[in-house]
Amino acid sequence: MTVEEFDLFVVGGGINGCGIAADAAGRGLAVMLAEQSDLASGTSSASSKLIHGGLRYLELYEFRLVREALAEREVLLAKAPHIVWPLRFVMPHVASLRPRWMIRAGLFLYDHLARRQRIPGSSSVDLRADPAGRPLRADLGHGFAYWDCWVDDARLVVLNARAAVDRGAQIATRTKVVSARAADGTWEIQLSTEKGVRSVRARALVNAAGPWVGAVAHAITRGNSGQRPHVRLVKGSHIVVPRIPGAEDAYLLQNADGRVVFLLPLGHRYTIVGTTDVPFDGDPAKVAIDAAEETYLLAAANGFLAKPLEASAIVWRYAGVRPLYDDASDNPSAVTRDYRLELEAGGGLPPLLTVLGGKVTTYRRLAEEAMDRLTPHLPGAGPAWTERASLPGGDIAHGDFAAFAADLARRHPRFDAAWLAQLGRRHGSLTDTVLGDARGPADLGADLGAGLTEREVAYMRDHEWARTADDVLWRRTKAGLDLDPSQRAVAEAAISRILGR
After folding, report:
1. Which pLDDT score is estimated for 96?
2. What pTM value is reported for the model?
3. Distances (CA, A) of 487 to 124, 316, 490
4. Which residues of the chain carry a pLDDT beneath 70?
5. Nearest by Cα to 189 from 350, 363, 371, 23
C-alpha cells in the first residue's frame, strides 16, 4: 500500500493548528492536519469571542503581546469583516480599585502602541448621560470607553481550515494521532479514523493540540529526546443570560481581586458574562463550569448592575481549557497569554514544533512565526503571505458589511433582509454560493428553526466539516441558543439526517 507523503503534518484543529496549516499551504507546501474531534471543538470555541489587545495585560508589563495583538485587530478586521467587527467597551470607574490617572495612562498606551485605521480611540464617558449607563448602578457616574473587536471564534477556525484546503491542504477531522515516530529523516504517523487505521509520512511535525499538547507529546518518538511541553492548563468559564436591558455595548468590570470580568453582547438577544481563571487538572474533553465559578461571575456582574442577575436566568454555560506556557507564576490570572514555539531540529532527526499558549487574536502572527521557524528545514517553502489575504468570504468591498448586506437584500428581494444579513454574517461573500440557485425560501428546504435551513446545513456538511448536530448548532452557528428543548430535539434529528448520521 502506498503511504501518502506530506511536507508538514499538523496535529490539532483549533485556531493555531488551522492557522499554521493555512499559512503552510499558501507557501506551497503539501500539508495535512488531523483533529481528533470537530474543528474548534475545544478551547477555540470557548473563548470570550474577542479580537483584543488585552488591556489588563498592560498591568503585567506584557507590552510586546499587547502591541502585536492591537496591530492584529486591524489585520483581522480587514481579512474577515463578516465575522470580525468593532465593539465599544465601557469601563465604569471605581476609585477604590484603580485611580483615574492609571486608567487614562493605560488607555493612552492602548491607543498608541499600534497604528489604528478603523478602530476608534478611547474617551471618557458620563454614565449619567450616555445610554451605556442605563444597566449600571446609579452611583456609577463616570467611566471610560475604548474599542476592540468581536469575533465568531469557531467560524474563524473553520475559515482558516477552508483557506488551507483552498490551497491544497488536507483537513481530517475525527482523526486521532495514535503515534508519530522519527525514522530515516521523516515522521511516520499512525492515525485512527472513523474508517479505520491510516498511515502517512511527513518531513516536519507540528504539535498544536492545545490542552492535549502533552498527551500528543507522549505519542511522539523522536530519538532520545525527553523534552516535554512546559504547559499549564487554566480553565476559563462563561455564562450566558438574556440580553441585559440597555447593554448594547460591552462592559469591562473591575473586580476587587484585581481581575476583570466582561459583559459582552451575543447576537441580539443575549449577554455573555466571563471569564474565570482556575487551575485545571483533568480531561479537557470533560471541562465544565463549577458552582464556585458561576457564583463568582454573578457576583462580579451584580456589583455593577442596577438589576442583579439571578442564577435562574442563565441559559447557557460553557468552559474551555487554556494551554498556557508555564512561566511558574503563582497566580493563574498572571500566567502569560503570550505564545511560545519550541522547535526541536537537527541531529539527523526531522523537525518537531510544539505550540504553547497564544490567543485567538494573535493566531495569524503565531502561525507566521511558526512557519518562519520551520521553513529553513523545508526547502521550497515560499514567503509569508497571510497579512493582506482575505479569509474565505472576507472579500467584501471596503470591509463595509452594512453595504454588503444591503446589496444582498437588493439582489435577493424574495428573502427576508434580516435573515440574509444573518446568513451573510456567517458566510460573507460566499453567501451566494450557499444560496445557489434558490430564488425564494421554498427553494432552501425545510426551516429548521433559528434561521437554519436544510440547504445551509448541507453546505456546512460539504464545505465546513460538519458531522454532527452539535457541530452545526453550537460551533458553526449558535442556533442552539434560540431553540427551546423540544425545538432543539426536532432540529437535531433533522440535521443528523442531512449529515447522514
Report:
1. 87
2. 0.96
3. 45, 16, 5
4. 1, 224-227, 330, 333-334
5. 350
Q: What is the DSSP letter of 262?
A: E
CB atoms within 10 A of CB 135: 23
For β-strands 231-242 and 316-325, DSSP reports them as: antiparallel
* The pLDDT of residue 223: 73
Alpha helices (H) along 63-114: 63-79, 100-112
**Phi and psi angles of residue 390, each rounded to the nearest 5 degrees, phi first:** -70, 150
What is the three-class DSSP state of 214? Answer: helix
At 16-49, the pLDDT tens digits run: 999 999 999 999 999 999 999 999 999 999 999 9
Euclidean distance between CA atoms 22 and 163, whole angstroms: 6
Instruction: Write phi, then psi, for 41 (nearest 5 degrees).
Output: -80, -10
Q: Are 479 and 450 in contact (CB under 8 A)?
A: yes
Residue with cell 444591503: 406
Crossing angle, helix 15-26 and helix 363-374, to 10 degrees?
Answer: 50
At 205, which helix (H) or strand (E)?
A: strand 196-207
C-alpha 227/C-alpha 218 separation (Å) is 10
CB atoms within 10 A of CB 202: 23
Number of helical (H) and strand (E) elements in the chain, helices listed first: 13, 21
Peptide bond preceding 276 in cis form (omega within 30 of 0) = no
Question: Burial code of 156-183, b = ≥16 C-beta within 10 A, e = fewer?
Answer: bbbbbbbbbbebebbbbbbbbbeebebe
The CA radius of gyration of the chain, in Å to the nearest whole number, is 23
With contact defined as beta carbons under 8 Å apart, do 220 and 180 qualify? yes
Dist CA 234 CA 407 (whole Å): 44
Backbone phi, then psi, for 251, in 5-degree steps? -130, 140
Beta carbons of 129 and 182 less than 8 angstroms apart:
no
